[in-house]
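To the wet lab folks,

You asked to see what we're planning to order before we commit. Fair enough. Below is the target structure as tokens, and below that is the sequence we designed to fit it. If anything looks off to you, flag it before the synthesis order goes out.
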């Protein structure tokens, strides 16, 4: 327990944080992949169906909590590529870049915290 916490009783549920982050990140990545499979992808970089299928595959691992750190690492790579492409297109300070930076921060946090509560990977 931390003496500086405003709500020390909530610290007992600290494993819920990574659960929320990985499910939201997984659902967001699944949506990106789904849009690419339908041919409506509008992100920087590849909008191919194969790339969309890879995003959906990674998102499933995030959502169920299996190999979360590997899935987060792959997501970090994807997001760094997207941010790099935005930089190359001189769109680094555009509104869409903030979204990618937030998703990148979520993926990096999962690298350090792991899957959290209700992860399939914790059963093995």
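Sequence we intend to order:
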């Amino acid at each position: 327990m931390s003496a500086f916490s405003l709500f020390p009783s909530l610290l007992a549920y600290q494993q819920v944080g990574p659960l929320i982050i990985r499910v939201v990140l997984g659902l967001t990545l699944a949506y990106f992949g789904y849009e690419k499979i339908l041919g409506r992808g509008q992100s920087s970089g590849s909008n191919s169906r194969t790339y969309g299928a890879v995003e959906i595959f990674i998102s499933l691992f995030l959502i169920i909590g299996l190999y979360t750190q590997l899935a987060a690492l792959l997501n970090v790579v994807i997001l760094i590529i997207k941010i790099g492409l935005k930089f190359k297109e001189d769109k680094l300070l555009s509104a869409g870049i903030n979204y990618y930076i937030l998703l990148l921060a979520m993926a990096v946090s999962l690298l350090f915290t792991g899957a959290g509560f209700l992860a399939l990977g914790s059963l093995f």
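Structural context that might help your review: The chain has one domain: 17-115. DSSP finds four helices and no strands in the chain.

Thanks,
Computational group
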